[in-house]
Design goal:
The protein contains 5 helices and 2 strands.
């Protein structure tokens, strides 16, 4: 553990970030979350009905809460790296690349929207 380089640590963080995002938000894993969610009708002050998906149980909260899932993903990634490095390292490598790409894409998207907003202000 004392030989952990900063690069490896950053890779572990990015891999944990991407795995958490995959579980909580991505469409491809919706089939995992779906059995633990239910629809709830919410009526606002104006009488409009909105249907929201809410967790049925603690497992639903775990799969729907970024903070909750993040803890467990960090445990899985960390233990995978420490206990089974031959199997864990390739997975961590791929997830860390995907995590860094996701973060970069977010910044590019924000930058693109900001440029569009600023150019609209000039008109």
């Amino acid at each position: 553990m004392e030989d952990l380089s900063w690069l490896t640590y950053v890779m572990l963080i990015l891999a944990s970030y991407r795995l958490t995002h995959l579980i909580v938000f991505d469409k491809i894993t919706e089939f995992i979350r779906k059995p633990f969610m239910k629809n709830k009708k919410i009526i606002d002050e104006k009488g409009r009905v909105d249907v929201k998906k809410v967790p049925k149980s603690n497992v639903g909260y775990l799969l729907n809460c970024y903070w909750c899932a993040g803890i467990w993903c960090a445990i899985i990634i960390g233990l995978g790296y420490l206990l089974i490095p031959k199997a864990g390292t390739p997975v961590i490598f791929i997830l860390s690349i995907a995590g860094a790409q996701a973060i970069l894409e977010t910044f590019v998207g924000i930058g693109t929207k900001l440029i569009g907003f600023l150019s609209d202000l000039k008109k």
